[in-house]
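input
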Amino acid sequence: MNITFKLFATLTDYLPADARRSNQVALDVSPDATISQIIEPFGLPPKLVHLVLVNGKYIAPENRMSTTLVEGDVLAIWPPIAGG
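output
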């Protein structure tokens, strides 16, 4: 099934080079793949996987190893961001 995977801020460096400008990539994933399994091949450091959204809905850290997606979903991840 096809989903859209988006990384923001400093995480865009973990996307393939040709996807960094748009900060997203289309992925073909197994219907039973969890969020954790989908992001694992990208090598994101766990401490940088801070805000995880599926179609704009927050997914808590304790649910990322069990939550699966459906066709057309958008998985977006932000690192912790500090500022003022």
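quick obs: The chain has one domain: 2-78.
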